[in-house]
Amino acid sequence: MSVSYDVVIVGVVCGVVTASVVVVLIWIYCNRKRKRQSSYEQILPDGKQNMHIENGTLVVNMKQIPFTVPTQATLTRRMERGSSEEFRSQSGGLSEPTSPLNVKRPSVEIPGAYALGSIDPSLYKIVDEDDDYEIPLDHIGRVWFAVEYERETEKLLVTLMKAKNLPTRQYGNNSSCDPFIRLYLMPDERRYLQSKFKKKTCNPKFEESFVFQVSYRSLQDRVLKITVYDVDRHRRHNVIGHALYPLKDHGAESNERLVIWRDLEREVTESTADKGELLVALCYNNHLERLTVGVLEARDLKYENQPSDTYVKVCVLVQNKVLKTKKTEVLKKTDSPNYNESFTLKLPVTSLDAASLSLTIMQHSSGHKDKIIGRVILGSFMFARGKELDHWNEMVANQRDQVTQWHGLV
Question: In this structure, what are the phi and psi dihedrals at residue 248, rounded to the nearest 5 degrees?
Fold first, then answer.
């Protein structure tokens, strides 16, 4: 009997403890739920005064939440304020806007050269501009551009502005022309920067800027070449004309921006400077895979002060890698030296298309570093143009025959 009594007591105690734990847990749960609800604003009030029955339906009066739609003027002010703040740095000064150069345009990559994108036309207004100029006979168009050289950073900034009176493909239709422009920094004609295409206009407005990285020393020997193309309906690029601007005529010391116009020409002389000429003979033997280079004579060499001792350095390159270098003897002071030397160099047939030949006339001075008077580069289409390319191709076409030509120094 005592055993059953103990069991009852234990059961009662366990029940009380269990009930206490359940009550505590329920209290904790309700307390947490009440705290969560109190952190939010009540949209539905608890008061019965906000509820009433209408036609047998319980209607709850919702609490109004204040909400204001901003006006168009407010949005405009915010957009303007945001766009202006994008150009401000943390120090309060102005920083450069993001360049729109992520979109690539067709061009040949030039180290240190790139396009700047669109410009503000008001910064490049042409003083005393006459759009209705008198059109000469056989006129094929006129192009306007601006040139500025920053000597501190050695950057040449070229701004294409517009072109006018370009020829049309259909007589009487002034919209039958789809022009674009390529910029070259002569004598390098293998690489260029290119403008955007303009659709159906003989008077395109480009308003684009481009940058060439060029040292102040070599600036005097460079010529800016502007070539205007027209894209026909078969997507062929037809040359309309060229314009040249010798950079030696540009006042690079003043960092001044000059606005210039040039009439387009069908053919232009691309010599960068009158430094003299060099007579070169080429002969290639495909069976022996040997290139014979004859350095014969030079004429009308231009010196800085007076005639000096000279020699010719001959370099054979394959894919711009120097394969072999030779030098002629040093000739005493004369402006028309006769070298009359030849060099035989090993050159595989498979390397002809990737090979070039550089002939540089050097001014020799005892105790001083030799200076370059001028050079000639012969080679395939990858490395040469004009007479230099024709000379190389004639050598390849007439193997074992000696081909001799005069070349202007650049």
Answer: -70, -20
